[in-house]
Amino acid sequence: MTAEEERLAAMDAALARIRQIGEVQSLEPDSVSFGFMPFDLSGYWDETVARFRTLVERLSQFAAAESSIESGPQARSVIGWTGDLATVWAGPAAPEQRQAHFALLEAELRYRARMVLILTASVRVAASLCAAAASPLMAPAAFRTVTNLVSELQSLSQQAARE
């Protein structure tokens, strides 16, 4: 037997011994494992994945509306970020049901547009505050940006109250 064959035979014997130890010394049913995560995360993980999927779905579309009647869902409309509209109807709908569904979609669009305005205004404020922190000469511009955000928020709130 060559040195290489002896080394392979020794490795095979070591692997067989490891396999034998694993089979003989298995965990007993009443033993407790204190591993990395001693608690069960399956329920938490499922909930987290569901929340993540919902978030991705909401971010992948600009606006969506779903209307229903007593028998269940009637229609679902989705507007993508590029402006594409897709509407799926569960069956025939009366003109007043169609009108109510599209009124709901319009309200969702107004809400999303307001949220985009608020988000962009907030990013502008954050950028101007960072610039003001870096250079005190930018403080007046940062103050104007903050006051503009406050006035935009007030006008959006008044507009929402009117609707």
Number of domains: 1
Kindly, what is the distance between the CA atoms of the first and last residues, rounded to a whole number of angstroms?
Answer: 91 Å
Fraction of residues in β-strands: 5-15%
Q: Report the sheet with the most strands, covering strand number, pairing sense and barrel closure.
A: 3 strands, antiparallel
Describe this entry's structure for a reader:
With 163 residues, the protein is of the alpha+beta class. It has one domain. Helix content is 64%, strand content 12%. It contains 4 helices and 3 strands. It has helices spanning 3-24, 42-59, 95-134, 139-162, and strands spanning 63-69, 72-79, 85-89. It has a 3-stranded antiparallel β-sheet. A hairpin with a 2-residue loop joins strand 1 and strand 2. Helix 3 runs antiparallel to helix 4 (139-162). The radius of gyration is 31 Å and the shape is flat. The relative contact order is 0.06. The model has no long low-confidence stretch (mean pLDDT 79).
Explain briefly what this protein structure is:
This protein is 64% helix and 12% strand.
